[in-house]
Prior knowledge:
Number of helices: 5
CATH architecture: 3-Layer(aba) Sandwich
Shape: globular
Helix content: 25-40%
Strand order of the largest sheet: 3-2-4-1-5-6
Number of strands: 6
Amino acid sequence: METTRLFLVRHGRVVGHEEPRYNGHNDVELSKEGRRELEHLSEYLKDVELSAIYSSDLKRSYKSALVLAEKRGMNVEAVAALREIYLGMWEGLTRSEVVERFPSAKDFTFRDLATKGVDGGETLVELKARVLPALKDILDRHRGKNICIVAHGGVNRVILCDAMGLDVENFFRIEQDYGCLNIIDYFSDGFSLVKLLNGGPNQNMGTPVIY
C-alpha cells in the first residue's frame, strides 16, 4: 500500500519567547536559540530523504524551514494557508495585557476557541477549514514520498487531531514544543497513523499557549 510520510515540525523559539505573547499572524523573528533547535533537528534528520519542504509564510516558520533545507540544497515553498491561527484583537499581547484592555476576556478559556474565537479572530473550526485543504494538496502532490512541513503549534495540533480522528475540542490535549518533530503516515486507503508525537532531539518544556 502506498504511504506518504509527513515530517511535521513546529518552528523554533522566537524572539521574546521569555514573555509569552499571543502572536498568531504577528510576524515575529526566529531567535538564535530557535535556529540552534532547527540545526539539531536538521542533524537528526540528515539521513531522511525528503522530496519537498513546505512552511507557513510567517518568518518564524519559514526561517526554521530554511535551516532544514540549506544543507540539502533544497528550496522551501511558503504556503499562506499554513499560518498560525489569527487571534484578532489579542495579537502581540500577553495574557495580562489582554485582560487589562479587554476585561471581559478574563473568563475566556481556550475551550472557547473551538467555536467562538477571540474578538475578530479565527475559531479552531475556521483554522481547520483553512489548513486541511492545503495539507491535502501537499500530500496529493507527493504521494508515496517523504515530505516536511514546518508550521506552528496551532496548525500542527489541527493536523494531528485530524490524523488521529479527534474533534478540534481536543486541540489543547496535544503539546507542541518549540522545534518538535511529529511523524504521520498517510496511506492510500485514507487511513493515517501518527508514528511520533512532539518528539525529536529538542528537549523543550513548552506551554500550551499558541505563539
